[in-house]
Each structure stands twice: as C-alpha cells, then as structure tokens.
Amino acid sequence: MFESGFANQPTSVSANDGLELHGAFVAAVNRCAPPANKPTPQERDNCLPYLVAELQALTDVRVIVCLGSYAWDGALRVLNALGHTTPIKPRFGHGAEVAIGPYLLLGSYHPSQQNTFTGKLTPSMLHGVFARARELAV
C-alpha cells in the first residue's frame, strides 16, 4: 500500500509506529479467525452486516480491493445488501475488475503464504492491483 501511495510508510510493527493510511480503509469479510482459519458460509454471513454498516458510513468509497475469492464473494453479498446487483455473478480472478453500482471491485489473489511462497502472487502483482486502485480512485 505504501508503494501505491495509500500508506505513509512501508511497514507497521505496532499500533504506535506512526503508520497512516491515506485514501484507504482496511476491512474484512470475517471479524474473527475461525478454527483452522477456514470460515464457514454461516460465519461469513453473520459478519456481513458489520461490513455493510462500514461501507454505508464511508461516503467516498469508489474502489474495493478484494484479497481473495472469499473477499470477492463477501463484497458481492455486501453490495447486494446495499441494493447494487448484477444480472450475472462476476467471476473472481487476479486483476478482475467489475463496476457494481457506484463501486468498482478489483480482485487480487490473497497474500497468504500459500500464494506468495508458491509464486501464485508476487509482490509486483499485488502492487499492480493497488496501483490500479489508486489510478481509479483519483
């Protein structure tokens, strides 16, 4: 996020280290880490009202970056709850872009160890998605 101008420093090590986000808000589809880090659809659906409320409170959101297909699906459900629907469910993929209502969803593979250690997601790929988000948000 630092490289694309959303953060004032490249790393954060504590709550008091001076990190500031500019033009970005970090949210999650799920609010807790479930057993084995595998949330169920019911756990996701239980948490979605919180994400709906956050998006309603943030009046200047134009771009939503979804880190992984789970986040992509959650974002689609949140936008549907806000009355923004699509006739066909947009497919997730790295670099996917879709306009839904006043928002543009961008997809990225999740930056998990499974994806980064195998090279499925590289730092330049992730940076590219955030650079595109910055370009679209301006």
What is the secondary structure topology, with strand pairs?
Layout: H1 41-57, E1 63-67, H2 69-81, E2 97-100, E3 103-108, H3 113-117, H4 123-137
Helix pairs in contact: 1-2
What string, H for helix and E for strand, traces the elements in order?
Answer: HEHEEHH
Helix share bin: 25-40%
Q: How does the overall form come out from the CA principal axes?
A: globular
Q: Biggest sheet, strands in spatial order?
A: 1-3-2
Overall average residue pLDDT: 93
List low-confidence stretches: none
By DSSP, the count of extended strands is 3
How many angstroms separate the termini?
Answer: 15 Å
Radius of gyration: 15 Å
The major pleated sheet works out as:
3 strands, mixed
Number of helices: 4
CATH fold-level assignment: Uracil-DNA Glycosylase, subunit E
How many distinct domains? Answer: 1
Query: At the fourth CATH level, what is the homologous superfamily?
Result: Uracil-DNA glycosylase-like domain
DSSP strand content: 5-15%
